Amino acid sequence: MIDIQNMKLAECEALSHWIDPRYGFLSPGKFIPALEANREVYKVDCHALEGYGQDAEFLREKEKEIFPISFNISRTDLEACDIYQKIEDTVARYGLSRDQVHIEITESALNDSSQAMVEAVQHFHDLGLPGLDG
Fold first, then answer.
1. Beta-sheet pairing, 2-3 with 8-9
2. CA–CA distance, 103 with 90 (Å, rounded to integer)
3. In DSSP terms, which residues pair with 3 in a beta bridge?
4. What is the per-residue pLDDT across 27-36, written as a single tens digit (0 to 9) for each?
5. CA–CA separation, 126 and 120 (whole Å)
6. Cα–Cα distance between 53 and 51 in angstroms, integer?
């Protein structure tokens, strides 16, 4: 994201794409639904967060600016693993500040208006994580 007031980079977004040797470039719309259906999308989401932590560590060592990242959470992330703990562990392991990790709830998760989703949003807020733009 670019801050239009000063025309400088303000935030990044973690987006997953797949380059398959047979089918070529696949957009998230081609593979994320299958991963969600099989309760495996959390692996991609955790991998993206881990990659951000590694990148932040590298930039810190080079004394470069570290921009916040928007990170997607799926309903199945909440069901398939302790995503809260995974985020907490990554933040601690890489010395990230909470304002660097912005949580976005995916549209498929927002389609579920259950109490569990309301509780999840509250839990992220309680952890001090900004975002939840969806």
1. antiparallel
2. 14
3. 8
4. 988 998 899 8
5. 10
6. 5
| Amino acid letter, 48 | A
Render pLDDT for 73-96 as a digit per residue (tens, 0 to 9).
887 888 888 989 999 999 999 999
pTM: 0.81
| Residue reference for tokens 């991609």 | 44
Give how far Cα 86 sits from Cα of 4, 32, 77, 115, Å. 33, 20, 10, 22
SS3 letters for the chain?
CEECCCCEECCEECCCCEEECCCEEECHHHHHHHHHHCCCHHHHHHHHHHHHHHHHHHHHHCCCCCCCEEEEECHHHHHHCCHHHHHHHHHHHCCCCHHHEEEEECHHHHCCCCHHHHHHHHHHHHCCCCECCC
